[in-house]
Amino acid sequence: MPLRFPDGFLWGSATASHQVEGGNTESDWAAWEQQPDRIVGGAKAGAAAMWWAGRAEEDLSRAAELGHNAHRMSLEWSRLEPSPGVYDLTAFERYREILAHARKLGLATSVTVDHFTLPKWAAASRSWHDPALIERFATFAAQSVRQLGDVVDMWATINEPNVLALLGYAYGRWPPGERGNRSFLRALANLLRAHALGYRAMKAERADASIGLVLSMPYFAPFRPTRTDRAATRGQDWIFNGALLSTLQHGRLPPPLSLTGTPIEHMVGAYDWIGLNYYGCYKVKFDATKPHRAFGIHVDDGNIKTATSDWGAPHPAGLVAQLERLSVLGVPLFVTENGIFDNEDRLRPRYLVDHVRAVYDAIAKGVDVRGYFHWSLIDNFEWAEGWSTRFGLIGLDVATQQRTVKRSAQLYARICASNGIPDDLPEAS
Ligand code: FCB
Fold first, then answer.
1. Which atom of ligand 1 is the closest one to the Cα of 391?
2. Is the pTM of this model over 0.85?
3. Contact 334/212 with Cβ under 8 angstroms?
4. CB 116 within 8 A of CB 166
5. Which among 19, 12, 133, 138 has a CA at the least distance from the CA of 76?
6. Phi, psi dihedrals of residue 248, rounded to the nearest 5°
7. Are β-strands 3-4 and 273-277 bridged in parallel, bridged antiparallel, or unpaired?
């Protein structure tokens, strides 16, 4: 039996400004890439996929030709507010061109105000450790709605606050390179406050704007069925996923993130939809020497990883579980990212079909999922992994800027065209 999704389901892919635009010199990431040993192979985003210089339109046209009916992208704050309170209206115009083009092609537009990068001026004053950035973000988000509200169908405030807080403020692997639990907590609290205040400011600008938050929620499972492995799994899941979900519901960071239940002002109800970014599952094994990681280490179980990054093992059932879990928030859900680093496009076809089927299963269980965005439309600059890990449906030769439509893109095109999984898809069985 072919699987058919509800009418109006959004099928798209996602990109983020710094990863595809190129020529971005004013962000904290641009500065970070100049430092030795920050990025695999000393790589830089450089020209990236040249979206800023004019190639966004042709790639969006490719997406439309491949049957997508939506696209998720983000704004580069450092271009739009080059110094505090000063907006570059020409840069807003460039985004308007791109978004209007997407709309003309029949792509619904989903725009994330901030996807990891900060302007250098924000980095110069302690990045997300600076409480003043909360208000600055909210003002910038409202300004973005004022400038672009008529060409955007869905807004998200911030991409994956938990991932950014962990990699940039606990592990020091991303800018600003801070480490430690207190540092993590302060950044996470401020990011969540920025979301909540941003949501209010954007609504004040345009009451009918649809505004969400995008969360990364990997699945955690015990390595062995022992009490200790299960306890470590619960601990990691709570710290990374559960505590955040609880904060969205109750407006306070719960223990152990905050012993005092630090309030996140304006959070309750500050989302019209939630975006889930889902990549895979971590198998957790008890380790008495790792109190700061809830006494758990991750065991490799066919994980998709490099020496420095680990996206977990493909586990479509985890996507169903996380969607079901998010449904307690009572708002529509979107899978805003799901994909696999696979430079040869060998694993991606199966991964893609299995995860689309998982979304179907979630819907069949009554979860209100409205769209699926594959990460990513095109190979792009993957943060600390640089150009070494390719996630695109479309291949990119960075030197020649040549694009190649991969087999998985053709497969996804068939899914988009049939609004589901047709029977004769080789990967459908
Ligand atoms: C997510 C990020 C996205 C991309 C994918 C692989 O955490 O949101 O920018 O790097 O991982």
1. 6
2. yes
3. yes
4. no
5. 19
6. -65, -35
7. unpaired
pLDDT averaged per 10 residues in sequence order, the chain, 429 residues:
95 99 97 97 98 98 98 98 98 98 98 98 98 98 98 98 98 98 96 98 98 98 98 97 98 92 96 98 98 95 96 98 98 99 98 98 98 99 98 98 98 98 84
Is 382 touching ligand 1 by the criterion CB < 6 Å?
yes
Find out whether the beta carbon of 16 lies less than 6 Å from any atom of ligand 1. Answer: yes
Closest CA to 15 of 51, 61, 58, 41: 51
Site of tokens 């390595």: 223
Cα–Cα distance list, 396 to 5, 30, 190, 390 (Å): 31, 21, 36, 9
Ligand 1, atom 4: closest residue by C-alpha: 382
How are the residues of the chain apportioned to helix, strand and coil, as percentages rounded to the nearest 5? 45, 20, 35
Q: In what helix (H) or strand (E) does residue 70 lie, and over which residues does it extend?
A: strand 70-74
Tokens linked to 184: 């993590």
- In the reported structure, the alpha carbon of residue 2 is separated from the centroid of ligand 1 by a whole-number distance in angstroms of 31
Whether the CB-CB separation of 329 and 408 falls below 8 Å is answered with no
Q: How far is the CA of 218 from the centre of ligand 1 (A)?
A: 12
Pocket test for ligand 1, best of 18, 72, 116, 375 (most atoms within 8 A of CB): 375
Closest atom, ligand 1, to C-alpha of 160: 8
